[in-house]
Amino acid sequence: MSEIRDKLFSKKTDLVGFTFDAKVSEIFDDMVRRSVPGYQNMLEMVGLLVQIYGQKNTNYYDLGASTGAVCLALGLNNPHPDSRIIGVDNSVAMVEKCRQNLHGKITNFEIICADINNINFENATIIVLNLTLQFVPVAQRQALIDHIYQGLQPGGALLITEKIHFDDVKMQKQMTKLHLDFKRANGYSELEIAAKRQSIENVLITDNQKTHIKRLENAGFSQNFCHFQCLNFASFLSVK
C-alpha cells in the first residue's frame, strides 16, 4: 500500500472531533504506523492466528477495516482459499480506500459500509477488532462482544487490539511519556501531537486490561489472554 505522509495536524486550525473522513483515509496508513508502537507486529500476529484458528469454508470478519491492512494480513496468510474475508467500516471514504488497497492483492473478499453493531455474523471463525472497540461508546461494548461471541463457530477466535490505560498513576504517566517519545521519534512535532490529542480526546475512550478480560469472560469466551503488548497498546486473543 502506498503511503501519503500524515500532515493532518501540522498547522494550527479550528479543532473538531476526530473523524475518519477522506482526508484521514489518505494519510491513515502513515498515521497509524507512526502513532501506534508495535503496529507491524500486531498485523503479523493476525497473519499467524488466521493460520491457527481459521477454518475451511467459513467467514473472517474485520470490524473497522479502515484502509484494509488487517484484511490484507488475513488474505495473504489464509490457508483456506474457500473462506471469505468480510471487511466492515462505517466511513464511506475508508471503504473506498480499502477496496482500492485490496484490489489485485487478495481475492474472495467483500468490503461493507455499515455500523459494526448491526452486522449479523454468519459462519464466522475469525473476527478482528483492530483499534476499533476504543471508538465504540463504552455502554455498547459489552453488547458488541456478546454479539460477536454468539456469531463465532466453536473453536473460532476474536482478536482485539486496543490502546489501554493503567490504574497505577505512575505507570500511566510513564507509558504516556514513552508513547509521546515514540511519536516524536517518528517525526511528529509538538504541535501535531498536541493537536491530535485534543481532536481525539473525547472520541477514543480507553479501557484497562482487566476491563477487557472481564468483558470477554462475561461474553462466554473460554480462553482470554493478552498475547502482545507494546507500551500502552495491547492485543487480546479470545477463543470460543
Quick recap:
With 240 residues, the chain is an alpha/beta fold. 42% of the residues lie in helices and 21% in strands.
Characterization of the model:
With 240 residues, the chain is α/β, with parallel strands linked by helices. The protein has a domain at 39-165 and 203-239: Vaccinia Virus protein VP39 (Rossmann fold, 3-Layer(aba) Sandwich), CATH 3.40.50. The chain has helices spanning 22-35, 39-53, 69-77, 92-102, 138-151, 169-185, 190-200, 209-219; strands at residues 59-63, 84-89, 109-113, 124-130, 152-163, 223-230, 233-239. It has a seven-stranded mixed sheet, with helices on both faces. The protein is globular and about 50 Å long. Residues 4-18 have low confidence and may be disordered.
Might you state the CATH topology name of the domain at 39-165 and 203-239? Rossmann fold
Fraction in helix: 40-55%
Q: Strands across the major sheet, in which order? A: 3-2-1-4-5-7-6
Average predicted local confidence, pLDDT? 91
Beta-strand share of residues: 15-25%
CATH architecture of the domain at 39-165 and 203-239: 3-Layer(aba) Sandwich
Largest sheet: 7 strands, mixed
Question: Could you name the ranges where pLDDT drops below 50 across 5 or more consecutive residues?
Answer: 4-18
SS-derived structural category: alpha/beta
SS summary, helix count: 8
If you compute it from the alpha carbons, what radius of gyration comes out, rounded to the nearest whole angstrom? 17 Å
Shape summary: globular
Instruction: Determine the N-to-C terminus distance.
Output: 33 Å
What's the number of extended β-strand segments? 7
